[in-house]
Amino acid sequence: MIKIGILGYGNLGRGVEAAIKQSPDLELTGVYTRRSPDTLKIATEGVAVRSASELEPKRDDIDVLIICGGSATDLPAMTPKYASLYNVVDSFDTHANIPKHFDAVDKAAKAAGTIGLISCGWDPGMFSVNRLYSLSILPDGTPYTFWGKGVSQGHSDAVRRIEGVLDARQYTIPVPAALEAVRNGENPELTTREKHTRECFVVAEEGADKARIENEIKTMPNYFADYDTTVHFITAEEMKRDHSGLPHGGSVIYSGRTAGGNTHIIEYRLTLDSNPEFTGAVLAAYARAVCKLSAEGVSGAKTVFDIAPAYLSPMSGEELRAHYL
Amino acid sequence: MIKIGILGYGNLGRGVEAAIKQSPDLELTGVYTRRSPDTLKIATEGVAVRSASELEPKRDDIDVLIICGGSATDLPAMTPKYASLYNVVDSFDTHANIPKHFDAVDKAAKAAGTIGLISCGWDPGMFSVNRLYSLSILPDGTPYTFWGKGVSQGHSDAVRRIEGVLDARQYTIPVPAALEAVRNGENPELTTREKHTRECFVVAEEGADKARIENEIKTMPNYFADYDTTVHFITAEEMKRDHSGLPHGGSVIYSGRTAGGNTHIIEYRLTLDSNPEFTGAVLAAYARAVCKLSAEGVSGAKTVFDIAPAYLSPMSGEELRAHYL
């Protein structure tokens, strides 16, 4: 059994917990939190909730610690810190800062003889793996990434911060005509606006100026100004009834050409009912891989690019070759 | 530069050659054939065509030998034989015999300190990798594989062997309703007939009994009897004009559930204008990986399951993390 600790029990932590439940070779040995442990009720019976401070000094009931924190401030500090004690997996997703994060984790992990797998999930993660396979096979080509239809937490939060907004949910939606042109091998050059639209569902305070709220959303720099955005005002009841899930997904489409002049389209598409449950399942599978690699004496920072697919599976090489090759 | 030899110059060998042309770090140093070398005219200028016998004793101008032979009789003999001299890559695709082939190649490669990567291409190959990723992430799920629309060489050959047939091309076509049900997460149980249809284009000899030919095709055991098959008789000119390409592709669709009761659909889809050029490009990328792994001292038989994605790329880890993660 591979002993897993989860640090952080938000949506993602609960997703990892759900994935461990489906994996007969993984065992959850503790959930660690920076909140007061007695305020947390977790889904797995008989598993302790402990303060994050109990992760130091090093415990012997954790083979891999899965760190479920935010990329803005949590992970840049936590992943290197805990990599100096444990094999760790995180889902760091601030693309521009990945090289810096990798270096910090690599230094800590190499010094401690542990593995720190960073930026795991589906983007970065499975989408990255598919981009890499495609461009390695077909060097003359163009990668396209479309997100959605799905809930963007960051954009939902941005709308919630507007004065007069009680609750909000933002869906990112790929533009069908853009998807079709890419799938047809037309290699279009697409602006931000041509690739995705944004749809917001907003619960406003009673008496709030809805026209102002809508305008503030649509003109918000970075988040909405470069997109065609639709805003719907709904009631709190409608929000709860129709928008309580966290679906997401998207497509990585690669349009490549071989020297004979032929075009090849490779598409990897995810349609996820629950973004955190799928992401948690990816993290759990890579935690298995990290444990196996660590047993082979490997150390340092790693990404999904560095892990052979067989390491993700509990099955032996013989089983995999006989049934899945 | 990684020095590549190609053994066998049919459609696949030419596909590998075209891929090498697009890869600045790969160099074709020779094409080897069991035919008389002077009967072969290859597409790359300045590269020698040599008899297969010149592969023995071991040459020093080959880092990886890509063996482009048939799975029925060529590869079971050739891959172990040449793995005792060179790092080799093959596209062995008789699924039921993969374990036996793996063992034979493993024995030869381990004794020689070489790597023998078997069963590379897209199925087995990229489809296998995607099946493995999906089932490792979502252990509670069902994998579906659809092939086509594309030309099946084996089925085309089977039709050509019928008396009175001058030429034939067989297309395998997934049934749209089956694809849709799987993509919708309905987890249908599908018979062979419900998954694919077969469409044949046949050039018959003058005066041949077309009704008999059509009946022989539709009732042919293993190849056609279990499918709904359509047969069209066309002229040799129409065959040349409309059916000279070798397009193929298909989808691996995985429908999985997480413990929270949510459904997730993962689809990997290929739409290939040229089956041999894409397959050749996959083999060339894995030849690069084999060369890198060999330089690290790895030996033995390997499959696509055992190769981390980063090994397929000529780019450094830094470049990949900065731009493609």
Features of the shown structure:
325 residues; alpha/beta; 4-stranded mixed sheet; 7-stranded parallel sheet
Structure overview:
With 325 residues, chain A is an alpha/beta fold. Helices cover 34% and strands 26% of the residues of chain A. The first copy, chain A, contains 11 helices and 14 strands. The first copy, chain A, has a 7-stranded parallel beta sheet with strand order 3-2-1-4-5-6-14, sandwiched between helices. Chain A has a 4-stranded mixed beta sheet with strand order 8-9-10-11. In chain A, strand 10, helix 8 and strand 11 form a beta-alpha-beta unit. In chain A, helix 2 packs parallel to helix 3. The longest helix of chain A has 21 residues. At the A-B interface, helix 1, helix 3, helix 4, strand 13 and helix 10 of A face helix 1, helix 3, helix 4, strand 13 and helix 10 of B. Strand 13 of chain A pairs antiparallel with strand 13 of chain B, so a sheet runs across the interface.
